[in-house]
Specification:
The complex is a heterotrimer of chains A (about 550), B (about 325) and C (about 270). Chain A contains 21 helices and 20 strands. Chain A has about 550 residues and is α/β, with parallel strands linked by helices. In chain A, the strands form four sheets. A six-stranded mixed β-sheet of chain A has the order 6-7-8-3-9-10, with helices on both faces. In chain A, helix 7 links the parallel strand 7 and strand 8. Chain B folds into two domains: about 80 residues, no CATH class; about 210 residues, MetI-like fold. Chain B is built from 13 helices and no strands. In chain B, helix 7 crosses helix 10, helix 8 packs across helix 10 and helix 10 runs parallel beside helix 11. Chain C has a single domain, classed as Orthogonal Bundle (MetI-like fold), CATH 1.10.3720. Classes of the chains: A alpha/beta (about 550), B mainly alpha (about 325), C mainly alpha (about 270). Chains in contact: A-B, A-C, B-C. At the B-C interface, helix 1, helix 6, helix 7, helix 10 and helix 11 of B face helix 4, helix 5, helix 8, helix 9 and helix 10 of C.
């Protein structure tokens, strides 16, 4: 085999942390990692947050974010150890030989400069092309990446194009200097699911056509499986498994990799409607104060006792607004909400304590859903005190019971939210909702801020608790895999309307309307060749273009 | 109408309305508060007739609104009335003193603004190293001492012990520019020191804020050197916050001038104001208060206008 | 309490020292406040540690009594400014709507006049007494506290845990005192330190301009005014308050910095 383009040996990365009230000290983020990237090949780096994957990607450009420092090992690019290079050589490397595509193009483009100036800057600065040649090249890349009006789009400012378009522009920026290696750092994570596959396809095509090598960093194994030749699985700064895409996806060796591959394979049998619905949303039309257009148009859905209704849609579909209407935070313009056989006041202030108790809510960001100055015991205990007048030993016993239900021990009672992990925080929020003994809980994107394995654990817990407590869930999410895993009924929302509604098997079976088809087909699947199949077969273009 | 013009018009209109309301507040502050002006002027021993005569002379028996409108109408046409204590025309007295004050503030700003921006950049460039720490320490010290004390410390060291510059800053029309500058060297130094610390610290914060943006990382990953990163990518985005910092500090300078003029016996607006507050000469105090407030509001308005003009989202709407 | 950094310890020590000196001034001062005990502007000696002032009073005694006045007025004005500003700020944030609009626009208006200028305008018609000084300084400064308190409360108010409390059916009082206040306390306490320093500087400036504490009462700004003529003869008596004000201000600043850092840390945690 020829000398690899990028050769990393024993890479160690550390950072200085400044914990409050303690002396600053150094910690290790990456504990010695080896890998190669051959010319024209794509290596996927996959792992959960804190695995050190972005840090490794940036190390190939000899760059450390914040206080991050490369503390040991070798990084060879084109036969040179860049750890031994001077700053002048490193500057030639960055933007010339190795370029970078970040997760948020919106933040990574300078808001004060035209797109074209930023796209050609590195190519011109590194003397790879003249300004004129670089601009010509940029337009060709805009065209290849499927951007509209490739001749003129560069004259716009970053805020004048959409998020999906800007992410493509960032890819053009990275490819413009004709680099040998591009580091893609979660390039599609911030996009809506239907936009994601178009950008993903554009990136894949661009990589293939230009023959550039790439490091593709993501937390989503299904995504990386579509674009990579090889995959390295990372966890806590260590390599877990390293092999070809085929081997990692189809015959993973390590237990952790197996868990990642089989994530979201929860089996949940659809329940049939039983008796009267616990919640009936009737003809709801709503708009925000001071705006001129409706965010919800004539929405009708039912939720049955002890079952789960998944409300699925992309950003702007109105799904979170629906939650605000049901909770009474946003009184609708028309329509009413029936709950447990009574009509709820449209305004929060008009609802009885019993109404409030029986309808609980769990939020997306568990960090900000809990008061940082209250202990877990106070957080879970407050609803017990407030709704049931529990005190002292009785309250404490019930808190411990609830902690037990969410699989946390008694010792958590005196901890503060800052001392919990992301998954533990969300569990405490679940316990707080359960403490009220509700008939129904609104779950607003409760797993989307979590790593896949942690999210999986939360979903399993929710299903388990549904059996024990006989509570109904209104589950708001953009993630169809989650929907498949836990729902009994599904409402697909699009532009403020319910596009498709019914039992899970019915909604997820053909014939589909165009939007549902697009949405369903956009969910990355853990198999090779999925991306090409989708692009070839779908009926409708995504709106994010 | 483009959004940007609408916003500018709104901001300028807001400034004018604010000025109008402030004039009302200043007027109310001196006229309607429990203190009786006539009593204050003549003292406790004044006879009732004398008080009554003075009230009539000042128009104190007219309804407040009418007096306010008269005062405001006069102020807008350049007639600020006459001083109670000397009977002098206030507009004429202020004109000379205002130009002296602006002369002082101008030279302080000319030195302080570039110096503060330069030192602010230096602090960013050497963040958490000794130049940055030294700058923070000086800042802490200088915001902990009132302006007038910095004035006396410098006066004691430079004028009295070293005898480099005069300890009082008397200027008049017959002096050459060089003589004038030598006369105001000390007050200018003090004013510079007073605003420098704030301006440095705020410039540092403004630039650091920009430097932490993701697009700065993008620029660094393009292989640009530090100079190119700062001038091509940080600077265009830092203009608005820096102008804001400068304007806020110039506004602060205007207040600092009042005290410094008293310290160095400088014939400007500040001393004029303080003298007449002690003498309870209300028309003069109102006039000076209005002018100081107008300068202050004007500078704040300029800061906002620059911020609107430099916002790419407003300059290049979708 | 074992984790107090050395800078905060120094700050706490000197702040406490100044407050103790203020409280026990009559016990600590070697001479009476207005007692003429020596010649004009005597240099420092065993008898007069800091020398004497412009009419022969012991400067150290005047500094101690002056500190008492300055610290008392600054403390009272800070308490007034703080109570008023934070109560109104929280109220505006939680009430929202027109109450918030009215209060906030009025505060904008008052803040568009420089504090010192506004104080001078008002003091030109008011009798200059200690209660009036405290009132004027406290009221003017409460606008700054209002802004901060409102901003902090608005930030907390949009947090999901406040929404969760609302959805639970909690009363406004619970939301203000149990959800918002504990999270707003530290930035407000840090700000209180800064406001206190500002008040010390403010009352000193007013006294120096002859519009604050009236002689023969002593305060730090007044001591500068009385002794400023000595400067040109090379007599540094007027600079003694500079040292006192600066050390007090720096000490309080160090404490405020520590309080503020401690706060940000609690929020950060592991997130």
């Amino acid at each position: 085999m020829s000398e690899p383009l990028l050769k990393v040996r024993g890479l160690k990365i550390g950072a200085t942390v400044y914990p409050p009230g303690e002396k600053p000290h150094d910690i290790d983020i990456v504990h010695g990692v080896d890998f190669d990237v051959q010319k024209g090949k794509v290596l996927g780096l996959i792992g959960e947050s804190g695995a050190g994957k972005s840090t490794i990607g940036l190390a190939s450009m000899a760059y450390g974010r914040g206080g991050v420092k490369i503390t040991g090992g070798e990084v060879w690019v084109n036969g040179r150890d860049i750890m031994q290079s001077g700053i002048g050589d490193i500057r030639k490397l960055r933007g010339g030989e190795v370029t970078y595509v970040s997760q948020s193009a919106a933040a990574s483009f300078n808001p004060a400069k035209k797109i074209i100036d930023q796209v050609v800057e590195a190519a011109v600065e590194q003397k790879k092309f003249s300004r004129k040649e670089a601009e010509e090249r940029a337009r060709v890349l805009f065209d290849k990446l499927g951007l509209p009006d490739p001749q003129n789009i560069g004259d716009r400012f970053p805020h004048q194009v959409s998020g999906g378009q800007l992410q493509r522009c960032m890819t053009a920026l990275a490819l413009c200097p004709e680099p040998d290696l591009v580091v893609f750092d979660e390039p599609t994570t911030a996009l809506d699911v239907t936009t994601q596959i178009d950008v993903l396809m554009a990136i894949k095509e661009a990589i293939r056509e230009t023959g550039v090598a790439a490091l593709y960093i993501t937390h989503d194994l299904a995504v990386v499986a579509q674009v990579s030749d090889d995959i390295m699985v990372l966890r806590h700064g260590n390599m877990v498994e390293y092999g070809s895409v085929d081997q990692i996806i189809n015959s993973p060796q390590e237990e952790y990799t197996q868990a990642l591959v089989s994530v979201r394979s929860i089996e949940h049998e659809e329940k049939q409607p039983n008796g009267d619905p616990v919640l009936s949303v009737r003809n709801i039309t709503a708009r925000y104060k001071g705006t001129q257009f409706d965010v919800l148009h004539n929405v009708n859905v039912d939720l049955y006792p002890g079952q789960t209704l998944a409300v699925v849609g992309e950003s702007g579909s109105g799904k979170s607004t629906l939650a605000r209407v049901i909770t009474g935070l946003l009184p609708p313009r028309e329509g009413e909400i029936e709950f447990a056989g009574r009509t709820l006041s449209s305004d929060l202030a008009g609802r009885s304590r019993e109404d409030l108790r029986e309808l609980q809510m769990i939020y997306q960001m568990a960090d900000v859903a809990m008061n940082p100055r209250q202990t877990v015991g106070t957080i879970i205990g407050r609803p017990l005190e407030f709704y049931f007048d529990m005190k002292g030993e009785e309250k404490r016993k019930r808190i411990i019971e609830l902690l037990d239900e969410i699989e946390l021990g008694e010792e958590f009672i005196d901890r503060y939210p800052a001392e919990l992990s992301g998954g533990q925080k969300q569990r405490v929020c679940i316990a707080r909702a359960l403490a009220a003994k509700p008939k129904m809980i609104i779950c607003d994107e409760v797993t989307s801020a979590l790593d896949p394995l942690v999210a999986d654990g939360i979903l399993k817990l929710l299903l388990e608790l549904q059996k024990i407590e006989d509570v109904a869930y209104l589950f708001i999410t953009h993630d169809l895999a989650t929907v498949k895993a836990i729902s009994d009924n599904i409402a697909v929302m699009y532009q403020g309307k319910v596009q498709r509604y019914g039992g899970k098997s019915q909604v997820l079976s053909p014939p589909f309307d165009d939007y549902t088809d697009l949405l369903l087909s956009s969910v990355p699947e853990m198999r090779l060749g999925w991306l090409e199949d989708v692009i070839a077969n779908r009926k409708m273009e995504s709106a994010g273009n | 109408m483009p959004l940007i013009i609408k916003l500018l018009a709104q901001r300028i209109a807001l400034g004018l309305i604010l000025l109008l309301l402030v004039s009302g507040l200043i007027f109310a502050g001196t006229m309607i508060l429990p203190g009786d002006v006539a009593q204050s002027i003549l003292g406790q021993s004044a006879t009732p007739e004398a008080l009554e005569n003075l009230r009539a002379e000042l128009g104190l028996n007219d309804p407040p609104l009418q007096r306010y409108i008269q005062w405001l109408g006069g102020a807008m046409t350049g007639d600020l009335g006459t001083a109670l204590t000397s009977g002098a025309d206030i507009t004429a007295s202020i004109a000379k003193r205002l130009s002296n004050t602006l002369f002082l503030a101008f030279w302080a700003a000319i030195i302080a603004v570039p110096l503060a921006i330069f030192l602010g950049l230096l602090a960013v460039r050497f963040k958490d190293r000794w130049p940055d720490k030294a700058i923070s320490a000086v800042t802490l010290a200088s915001i902990s001492i009132p302006e007038f004390l910095i004035g006396y410390v410098l006066m004691y060291l430079i004028a009295v012990k070293l005898r480099w510059f005069p300890s009082v800053a008397m200027i008049n029309d017959s002096m050459s520019l060089g003589d004038k500058l030598s006369a105001i060297a000390l007050p200018v130094t003090v004013l510079t020191l007073v605003v420098l610390a704030h301006m440095m610290r705020m410039t540092r914060a403004a630039i650091l804020n920009v430097m932490q943006s993701a697009y700065i990382e993008t620029a660094e990953l393009k292989g640009l050197n530090g100079f190119q990163v700062i001038f091509r990518h940080a600077f265009p985005n830092a203009i608005a916050p820096i102008v804001n910092v400068v304007m806020l500090n110039l506004a602060y300078l205007v207040v600092g001038v009042v005290v410094i003029e008293v310290v160095f016996v400088y014939p400007g607006m500040g001393q004029y104001l303080v003298d007449h507050v002690s003498k309870r000469d209300v028309p003069v105090v109102q006039a000076c208060g209005l002018i100081f407030a107008a300068v202050y509001i004007g500078l704040n308005m300029v800061a906002d206008v620059v911020a609107i003009l430099s916002n790419p989202r407003l300059r290049h709407p979708k | 309490m074992k984790n107090i950094p050395i800078s905060a310890m120094i700050g706490l020590f000197f702040t406490a020292l100044y407050f103790i000196a203020a409280i026990f001034a009559p016990l600590l001062a070697p001479y009476g406040m207005a007692e003429v005990v020596g010649d004009v502007w005597e240099p420092s000696s065993a008898e007069f540690l800091l020398g004497t002032d412009n009419i022969g009073r012991d400067l150290l005694s005047r500094m101690i009594y002056g500190g008492r006045t300055t610290i008392f007025i600054a403390t009272a004005a800070t308490i007034l400014s703080f109570t008023l500003g934070s109560v109104l700020g929280f109220f505006a944030a939680v009430a929202g709507g027109w109450v918030d609009q009215m209060l906030s626009r009025f505060v904008d208006l008052v803040m568009s006049i420089p504090t010192l200028i506004f104080a001078l305008v008002v003091l030109s018609v008011m009798p200059v007494t200690v209660p009036v000084l405290i009132l004027v300084m406290g009221l003017l400064d409460s606008t700054r506290v209002y802004r901060l308190a409102r901003a902090v409360a608005v930030d907390i108010e949009v947090m999901d845990y406040v929404e969760a409390a609302r959805l639970r059916g909690e009363k406004t009082a619970w939301i203000i005192f149990r959800e918002i206040l504990p999270n707003a306390l530290s930035p407000l306490v840090a700000e209180m330190g800064l406001r206190f320093i500002f008040m010390v500087l403010f009352v000193s400036t007013l006294s120096f301009l002859g519009l604050g504490i009236q002689p023969p009462e002593a305060d730090w700004g007044g001591i500068v005014k009385e002794n400023k003529d000595g400067i040109v003869y090379g007599i540094p008596a007027a600079l003694a308050p500079a040292f006192a004000i600066a050390t007090l201000a720096i000490s309080v600043n160090l404490v405020a910095d520590w309080v503020l850092n401690r706060t940000t840390s609690l929020k950060g945690g592991r997130g």
